[in-house]
Amino acid sequence: MFMKTYAFAFLLLLCIALCASQDVEFTFNGFTGSNLMLDGVASIESNGLLRLTNNTSQKKGHAFYPSPVRFGSNTSSFSTTFVFVFVPEKSGIGGQGMAFFISPTNNLSTAMAAEYLGLFNEENEGKSTNHIFAVEFDTIQNEEYEDKNNNHVGININSLTSNQSEFAGYYDDDSGSFQNLNLMSHKTMQVWVEYESEDKEIKVTLSPVGKSKPNKPLLSYKFDLSVVLKDTMYIGFSSSTGSFPASHYVIGWSFKLNGTAPSIDLSKLPDPPRRNTKELSKVLKIVLPSVFAGFVLICVPIFIYMRRQFKYAELLEDWEVEFGPHRFSYKDLHQATNGFKEKELLGAGGFGRVYRGVLPVSKLEVAIKRVSHGSKQGMKQFIAEVVSIGRLRHRNLVQLFGYCRRRGELLLVYDYMPNGSLDQYLYSGHEKPTLNWIQRFKIIKGVAAGLLYLHEEWEQVVVHRDIKASNVLLDSELNGRLGDFGLAILYDHGTEADITNVVGTMGYLAPELTRTGKASPLTDVFAFGAFMLEVVCGRRPVEPGAQGERIVLVDLVLEHWKQGSLADIVDPQLRETFAIEEIEMVLKLSLLCSHPLPGARPTMQQVMQYLDCGKPLPDLMVSSMNYSMLAILQNEGFDSFVMSYSSQMTSISTQSVGT
Ligand SMILES: *[C@@H]1O[C@H](CO)[C@@H](O)[C@H](O)[C@H]1NC(C)=O
Ligand SMILES: *[C@@H]1O[C@H](CO)[C@@H](O)[C@H](O)[C@H]1NC(C)=O
Ligand SMILES: *[C@@H]1O[C@H](CO)[C@@H](O)[C@H](O)[C@H]1NC(C)=O
Ligand SMILES: *[C@@H]1O[C@H](CO)[C@@H](O)[C@H](O)[C@H]1NC(C)=O
Ligand SMILES: *[C@@H]1O[C@H](CO)[C@@H](O)[C@H](O)[C@H]1NC(C)=O
Ligand SMILES: *[C@@H]1O[C@H](CO)[C@@H](O)[C@H](O)[C@H]1NC(C)=O
Question: Taking CA atoms, which of 95, 101, 628, 648 is between 20 and 30 Å from 128?
Fold first, then answer.
């Protein structure tokens, strides 16, 4: 009898324990002594701050709640809130961002830093097999993932492209007006993420810390999370830095499954990292004028907006009169593309979306690229350059016909290339046929000829700044034509380019660019080297490796050369050809072009001589090409590399430049 009662009581207790463990609930008012699982550069500081990244570029860090949470097959409601602060390296500048995530695994070791936010990599980005839900706080604008600006909050499902996103800010309860928040302002903020399983709705609310939760959420998105989430999932934070470092901190966190997250006791939270005072005075110096400028910048567009708020509104200013012939009306472009229908979308990525269209009167088939162009600053010069580029004529360049300008947006009108872009032929997963070596070699030579024209043969020097397979288009005869001049800069022969923002694509950026900010024909040559490798090997210049590191194609080719196995790195589709000597020559030339020292790279004139006239390459000593591009890209030990190798390099550079 007694035994029975005991057994019953025991079972009851067990049941209570089990049932309770289903409804996970926790609060961290600071993280001292917490058992979070950390990886990457994440750490818990002595005062209890969870620091996900530590003011170092190209790093990632994760913090997981240690045990998985049972959301159930019909995802239960949940709610979470956390207090966080981002500290930029220098006032205002820093990236990449942070995310709250729900993931099926607590091993995100293959995820990459920078734009991948420590959540995805090139391989799995966008795939439904990820089963990842995230709320991102992103401070770098990545147009490839359709980021709104460099200060936004987004709901992301399996992808870096947000399903819904908004500028960071909140709706004021009293006035209902939207208040901006700057994520990179070193201000502490609080977030609420809630999911309601009955309405199938995700809500994200942001506010300055200390303010009560605003009634109207920043984001609300109807979505059935059970489509994405598995029964049992891990929850946590991920953060990454790109080229500009920052530190991302979480100060407090609470969570509840099937209920409202307990409130965080702000008085118990550790002090946020202190702002150094020297910076503060600098901040004032910068902030005050920019507040005024911001006022002007906000009011002027609003004024203009109100005056021109109709469908085909465009921006047209007095200085544009001289460019008249190169200007298209928005109405025409709208008609040409059937109102920018999804059906006419040729591609999205890099710096915008590209649509196919047929111009109403001329019936000319065109490709129209829509680029967001936030600031008015430099617009006049930019348009002048667009118009100059419109005067370029070469059979290996895609003709730029003209432009149109709207609020915050620029449309560039190019000749339409029926065969699409080269990358579609190089990478599997596309329906395009593979190209044989003769076709590929012709494309390489064509692009080289186009570049030579840009660098040396036209009235000004044109530096393209974004050479890569996806910007090479194929005409009806499969000639390679360099397109997309959206980033090109022009300057007079005999002078140098101004220092500009470093733009381009990872893997094609010459190392000196990130140091000096100066684009030159030789930085294009570097990218051209990466491009040739891409065409010969059928691989991207930077690919994610098994451990989340980056595999750099240049390093791989160099390694194969040292081992005498260059043929093994060639695209398997090409290995049957008899032109292996020609292929090896192109590989070696690529390495010379992608040399970390600009002085060691050939000019396009020399490249043409090697490619076209069969001029032998300078005698390259593989041992003196002993560099690791990965190390250089990561900016590790680059200066010492220059010092220790420059003496050996000069022999190569004089050889190749002098011949
Ligand atoms: C950041 O963390 C990594 C790994 O913990 C460490 O090697 C590095 O020195 C840290 N950097 C700074 C600036 O604290
Ligand atoms: C980040 O590191 C850089 C370089 O070490 C330093 O100049 C800067 O002050 C650091 N920023 C912060 C906020 O600690
Ligand atoms: C995480 O995954 C990687 C690659 O899948 C694997 O090599 C590594 O051992 C895993 N780490 C742990 C701690 O399980
Ligand atoms: C949004 O979510 C769904 C998941 O059902 C995904 O397939 C879709 O591509 C997402 N992205 C966008 C930008 O809508
Ligand atoms: C999932 O749960 C919600 C809320 O509890 C309920 O309204 C809905 O009917 C459930 N759906 C299924 C398929 O069980
Ligand atoms: C969630 O909570 C409600 C009410 O508190 C309860 O009826 C329901 O069974 C709970 N659901 C789960 C999955 O625990």
Answer: 95
